[in-house]
Design brief:
binds flavin-adenine dinucleotide, alpha+beta, Polyamine Oxidase, Chain A, domain 2, globular, single chain, FAD/NAD(P)-binding domain, five-stranded parallel sheet, 31% helix, 464 residues, 14 helices, five-stranded antiparallel sheet
Length: 464
């Protein structure tokens, strides 16, 4: 009697969500395939090979910051090896800005370190410090859930009478940095969830983890190596055009070509951004596709500056953003040395607020701002990378979907991605969490012997 072959699984999308899902399912080895449209793995956290000041350097398509609260993300990186985890430099929270703010979390247990740090902070008046503490205490007392009537971060700050300068110096940069959405539009519940897990979390939760290498070295490259070793089928440059039902399972149709007859899958994970997912889902469940298409997007620009001469860059500093005065930069991160260049990365979240400055003008304005505010010589090279669909716009009325949103219309087809973690904004953490959760639901369905896991009952199997 022959042994029934195990289920076949396809993952569409090799960003951090798709790769985390694949890692959690890698025991399926050659019965698991990952298809990625681009030649590069990593999605919105992929590497970028650029020319800066006449040198070839490898950077990221956009500068990223990780924080201590990224538990799933850090666990995934650590699981890939100690060498990988060593590529993150951990630093206790210190918000230093060129406008004079200096706020550190002190080495005290729990939230005491933040409270004491706020009281001792420079660049805030006593009234501003007390207002910030009042907001944190009030959110903590309400289990970090703002009242339903408060939709936006601006409304939340107004309801807690946060002084204008405190908003400008602290809350607005944190909101735009974390949610990539301006406070007037940004979702108050998501901002509260970020504060809960970082400033309101355990002492190490608000630590900054600064990548000292391209992000690809932290996750996508070691993940792909590990998947290859497990015999998983890896298919870069394979854009999937559609998912069609076949023999009680699913067949993937590639853009331009069709996969061979052995490519019928029991489970398909659509691990793309929501708009790409909408296109794939439309023929399967038009209602779900309509929801996916309801996400808006906000661009982020990263301005890389390169100096030939030795310059002293802080590891991370908030810049004094003032768009009217021609200072668009928000944060600067030290990217260390490469090809005999000292490189700094300046982040401009919610890039659309800067208006229609072209890349050259944006780069020049940012370089001038950095020279002025940090007293640095002009850089030898400037390179601007803009991701138009960097993150979905984190508003209160964004669509909310579940990983198994297709369970009725297309059982066996699952969603994964940074947009499925309820409160959380678009982050590497939400991508990893979701990728692992999707893998857990598929494992449960496989155990239950049904495409959607229906009838199994109980909690999804934990696979990590
Ligand atoms: C400039 C920038 C700065 C950011 N800064 C931060 C930060 O500081 N901290 C943080 O936590 N997060 C940050 N983010 C957000 C973070 O990068 C994303 O939330 C995360 O990478 C999303 O991962 P994902 O796997 O859900 O989606 P994606 O990374 O979008 O992956 C989806 C993949 O699917 C592929 N794909 C799409 N359609 C198809 C198809 N038809 N067939 C096959 N493949 C397909 C795409 O090519 C892509 O590789 C930033 C993002 C950007 C762009």
């Amino acid at each position: 009697m022959g042994v029934k072959p195990g289920p076949r699984i396809a993952i569409i999308g090799g960003g951090w969500a798709g790769l985390a899902c694949a890692l959690a399912l890698r025991r399926h080895g050659p019965r698991l395939d990952v298809f990625e449209a681009s030649p590069l793995w990593g999605g919105r956290a992929r590497a970028a090979h650029v020319r800066l000041a006449d040198r070839e350097v490898t950077l990221d398509c956009g500068q990223h910051l990780l924080v201590g609260a990224y538990r799933a993300c850090l666990a995934q990186i650590a699981e890939l090896g100690p060498d990988t985890a060593a590529k993150l430099r951990r630093q206790r929270l210190r918000l230093v800005s060129s406008a004079g703010l200096d706020l550190r979390r002190l080495a005290l247990p729990g939230r005491a370190g933040l409270g004491a740090g706020l009281l001792l902070a420079r660049g805030l008046s006593v009234a501003e410090k007390l207002a910030a503490l009042r907001l944190m205490a009030s959110l903590g007392a309400s289990d970090w859930r703002p009242p339903g009537a408060i939709a936006s971060v601006a409304e939340l700050l107004a309801a807690h009478r946060q002084p204008h300068r405190l908003v400008r110096r602290l809350w607005e940069p944190l909101c735009i940095g974390a949610l990539n959405t301006a406070p007037e539009e940004a979702c108050a519940a998501s901002f509260a969830a970020v504060l809960r897990d970082t400033l309101g979390g355990p002492a190490d939760a608000s630590d900054f983890l600064l990548p000292t290498a391209p992000l690809a070295d932290l996750l996508s490259t070691p993940a792909v190596d590990s998947l290859r070793e497990a015999g998983v089928g890896l298919h870069p440059t394979h854009p999937v055009a559609s998912v069609v039902p076949e023999d009680g399972g699913w067949r993937l149709v590639m853009r331009g070509a069709r996969l061979g007859p052995d490519h019928r899958y029991d489970h398909v994970v659509i691990a793309t951004d929501p708009l790409a997912a909408a296109r794939l889902v439309d023929p399967l469940d038009a209602g779900c596709a309509q929801q996916l298409a309801g996400f808006g997007f906000t661009p982020i620009a990263t301005v890389y500056l390169g100096w030939h001469e030795p310059v002293s860059l802080p590891p991370a500093i908030m810049l004094d953003e003032d768009r009217e005065a021609g200072s668009p930069g928000q944060w600067l991160f030290d990217r260390g040395r490469q090809a005999e260049l000292r490189i700094g990365a300046i982040v401009i979240s919610a890039r659309d607020r800067v208006g229609d400055l072209d890349a050259q003008a944006l780069g020049a304005a940012t370089a001038a701002q950095v020279s002025r505010q940090l007293r640095l010589p002009p850089p030898a090279g400037i390179r601007v990378l803009t991701e138009q669909r960097a993150t979905w716009r984190c508003t209160a009325d964004r669509p909310r979907l579940a990983i198994d949103a297709l369970a009725d219309g297309a059982p066996g087809v699952w969603l994964a991605g940074d947009y499925l973690e309820d409160d959380y904004p678009a982050t590497l953490e939400s991508a990893i969490r979701c990728g692992r959760r999707t893998a857990g639901l598929i494992s449960t369905a496989i155990l239950a012997g049904s495409p959607s896991g229906a009838g199994q009952g109980g909690a999804p199997q934990t696979v990590w």
